[in-house]
Amino acid sequence: MKNEELILIIDFYGQYNQLIARRVRECNVYSEIVPFNTDIEKIKSKNPKGIIFTGGPASVYAENAPMCDKEIFNLGIPILGICYGMQFMTYSLGGKVARADKREYGTTEVSINNNSKLFKGFGNVNNCLMSHTDFVEALPEGFENIGSTDNCPNAAMQNTEKNFYGIQFHPEVNHTVDGTEIIRNFVYEVCGCTGTWKMSSFVQDTIKSLKEKIGDKKALCALSGGVDSSVAATLLSKAIGKNLTCIFVDHGLLRKNEAEEVSEVFENSEVNFIKIDARKRFLDKLAGITEPEQKRKIIGEEFIRVFEEEAKKIGTVDFLVQGTIYPDVIESGVGLGAKIKSHHNVGGLPNCVDFKEIVEPLRDLFKDEVRKAGLELGLPEHLVYRQPFPGPGLAIRIIGDITEDKVKILQDADYIFRKEIQESGLDKSINQYFAVLTNLRSVGVMGDERTYDYTLALRAVETSDFMTASFSKIPYGILENISSRIVNEVKHINRVVYDITSKPPATIEWE
Ligand code: XMP
Questions:
Q1: Which helix H or strand E contains 146, and what residues bound it?
Q2: Looking at ligand 1, which atom is closest to the CA of residue 391?
Q3: Does the domain spanning 6-190 belong to CATH 3.40.50.880?
Q4: Which terminus of the chain is less hemmed in, N or C, by CB atoms within 10 Å?
């Protein structure tokens, strides 16, 4: 039977909900996130092996505090409450939640009772991320304390008879040491899951549901040649075959040789593949534009217009497929997270789209999970492990206004940087690396001549989820070689700098 082991995640507007889902998937168990006000009958019908209450920004005493049906505690299903989830459990079962004078935030040493199933395999203390103001002052009847910090006497609790557990800290984030093991303990030791879900299940289930959803209607896929859209296109192609048309737009802001490389892969495959040369169109629209968000919006909108035009040529096309992945969704400010920038395939969408529906099969996945799905689908490794390239392309790596000349300068410099990194073998450990053409010009000397040319910045980061990243410590010798090649071989660059900022506080891209 499909997904016979389900962990249901009840969403109380927590910031890290998808990370919880991801951690459960890492334990090879299927998970689904549902809103806190989901009907109790619907919850029962899903027959979950366990339930996780997420964190959330509210206080249980707030006027519109999210609450789910209290009947959930009578279903005989194990529950793990995280942060607000623990407070909601406490409040609902007769314990007391109180408000601290000040918020506790940061990685904190938690003393834990490792006789609890939840902390099996742990020592007596564990560093965990605490982020809360309210706290559990008195446990509900039938519960015992299994964890505390200096500031928070009830940092973890359990009721072993009912299989209810609460933790004030966040096991889903990397700051909590071995947090995934806590989730694994809940899922395996408490809920009795055996771990039958794999990425191949995601692939099969997604193909099946895409088939059901799209039927014999037509779909267009925005193919960029990057791993996300290639995986999305392959899923769709397996689901609906020739009713899928993939459109690759050359907006003139791609990396050197990229348009040719992408065309080569897909022109020789089974999918309907169309390449549109829209270089002039995009550059005209972007002329004189310097503001990053405006660039993104223009490119996002122009993309959609190109698709709409192509779609009309094909006939009635109901669905537009996009390779949006989870970090794109949250960082574009959809939902409660703060808006950082409009990723062109999410926040930058124009309001009037001709398609009936946008299909985003990878919307809940993180980058490394998308790569796994790509391998499952049999895509070649060089494509699957390709570093990400943003939809707006070089437009957001040219600071200030964009001209054809600047695009050429950046393409040539970026090409040298990428080749050198690959040849040094550092491409295995650096997850994204590229050049940025700043709009700063400075004085240099070449031969005996004075130059007044552009400064190029090099960016290289190490990250697994692209939501946080550290700058890469590239050895000086390699940087020196790259710098000297670029300045010597690329006209109009006379200075190269290396970006030594991590994310946060910087983002990976400069715009
Ligand atoms: P930032 O700059 O937000 O980037 O730290 C995180 C990751 O997302 C990529 N990125 C984009 N991808 N459309 C995309 O498909 C976009 O508009 C976009 N903007 C940034 C970026 O390259 C990095 O991998």
A1: strand 144-148
A2: 13
A3: yes
A4: N
Task: Give the 3-state secondary structure of residue 159.
Answer: strand
pLDDT of residue 440: 98
- Tokens found for residue 28: 């090879």
Q: 453 CB less than 6 Å from ligand 1?
A: no
Per DSSP, what are the bridge partners of residue 130?
106, 169
Specify the pLDDT at position 349: 47
Query: How many CB atoms within 10 Å of residue 486?
Result: 24
Measured in Å, residue 220 CA sits from the centre of ligand 1 at 22
**Which tokens sit at 506?**
């910087």
CA distance 35 to 397: 38
Distance from chain centroid for Cα 153: 34
The pLDDT of residue 4 is 77
**Ligand 1 nearest-atom number relative to CA 388:** 24
Helix (H, G, I), strand (E, B) or coil at 369: helix
Is residue 90 a contact partner of residue 167, using CB atoms and an 8 Å limit? no
CA gap 439, 72 in Å, rounded? 58
| Residue nearest (by alpha carbon) to ligand 1 atom 16 | 343
Classify domain 403-498 by CATH number: 3.30.300.10
Cα 89 from Cα 99, distance rounded (Å): 16
* 223, 509, 510, best to mutate for ligand 1 pocket (most atoms within 8 Å of CB): 509
Helix (H, G, I), strand (E, B) or coil at 301: helix
Q: Same topology for domains 199-384 and 403-498, yes or no? A: no
**Hey, what's the torsion of the CAs at 233, 331, 133, 109, to 10 degrees?**
70
Which ligand 1 atom lies nearest to the CA of residue 503?
Answer: 5
Which of 296, 387, 466 best tests ligand 1's pocket when mutated (most atoms within 8 Å of CB)? 466
Catalytic, out of 5, 172, 360, 369: 172
Do 433 and 418 form a contact (C-beta atoms < 8 A)?
yes
Q: Which two tokens stand for residue 119?
A: 């902390």
Evaluated on CA atoms 293, 295, 297, 300, the torsion sign reads negative
CA of 344 to the centre of ligand 1 (A): 9
Atom of ligand 1 nearest to the CA of 323: 15
265 CB-near residues (< 8 Å, 6+ apart): 225, 380, 383
Question: What topology does CATH give the domain 199-384?
Answer: Rossmann fold (3.40.50)
What does the block give as tokens for 356? 């009936």
- Residue from 73, 79, 70, 90 nearest 136 by CA: 90
What are the residue boundaries of the structural domains of the chain, listed by start? 6-190, 199-384, 403-498
Q: Do 229 and 223 meet the contact criterion of CB atoms below 8 Å apart?
A: yes
Low-confidence ranges of the chain (pLDDT < 50): 1, 333-338, 346-352
This prediction's pTM = 0.73
